[in-house]
Amino acid sequence: MTLTLAKIDHGELCHGWSWTVADEDELAERVARIALGQYRHVAKILSGAGIPGPSTTAQQARAAIKLLTVGEGEEPWHRDGWVFQAISWIAARQAPSGSVTRAPHILRADKGFDGLQLQLSDDGKVITAVIVFEDKATENARSTIREDVWPGIAALEAGERLNELTHEVSAVLDAHAAADPELDVDSAIANILWKEARRYRVSVTINDTHNSDQARARLFDGYDSNAPGGVERRRADTIYLPRLREWMDAFAARAIASVKRIAADV
């Protein structure tokens, strides 16, 4: 697999996965495909389909390269944040679960939720939970979680942005219902309005400071007070990137090379 996912468990505080890049070139090609607008192809590959990639155009390639490049006067974390969201989406598609995952963002400045995943019942007919992603590519994991992630989750718990959440979930359900007409979209939407149906997935880059089980637990301290209830509501994923900005620069260059290779194959 592109990413290796290892389970982590911090008792009643949170649960989740630790990610490791298993094949950087393959991961870069999949991020390149997302940048080209070809996320459906990536989803099929992650589902086990061995199919050739779709064709692209020079215009698509230029737009993808721009998305993967830090422009003059731009801060690198805008590019890096988008790249990390794309990687997070790939990790979400790899994690074993019966679910429907929203398409990844194609714009850096998208102000919506970083990602959404709808958990399905065993028969696939009922939405049992909506998982809200918080994806953070940062060199300061603890302060980012404490000052940015926790307030955002607390606001959602208080009912803020519920109109946005309902809107985005509705769009995902409408698309899913086209493939499964037995799904009752209105009932599913009504179900996610209950607080217990809302869950969270915090994914963050870490360095040496938090690269141990004990330190990782300290990183997510406060999760249970901001999203109270059963531990299933609190997922926490990490990826160890000790030199984040340097890694992102090199990885984006690999993804750009993949875009150029894909475009050259047309």
Structural write-up:
By secondary structure, the protein is an alpha/beta fold. It has one domain (15-264). It contains ten helices and seven strands. It has helices at residues 24-35, 39-46, 58-67, 76-94, 141-157, 162-179, 185-192, 213-219, 223-226, 244-264, and strands at residues 3-9, 15-21, 99-101, 115-120, 127-136, 198-206, 234-240. A seven-stranded mixed sheet has the order 1-2-7-6-5-4-3, sandwiched between helices. The protein is globular. The model has no long low-confidence stretch (mean pLDDT 90).
Compact description:
The protein has one domain.
Termini separation comes to: 26 Å
Sequence of secondary-structure elements = EEHHHHEEEHHHEHHEH
Task: Give the overall form.
Answer: globular
- What is the count of helical runs? 10
Beta-strand percentage? 15-25%
Number of domains: 1
Low-confidence stretches: none
Number of strands: 7
- The average pLDDT value, as a whole number, equals 90
Cα-atom radius of gyration: 18 Å
- Secondary-structure class: alpha/beta
Helical content class: 40-55%
| Biggest sheet descriptor | 7 strands, mixed
Strand sequence of the main sheet, in spatial order?
Answer: 1-2-7-6-5-4-3
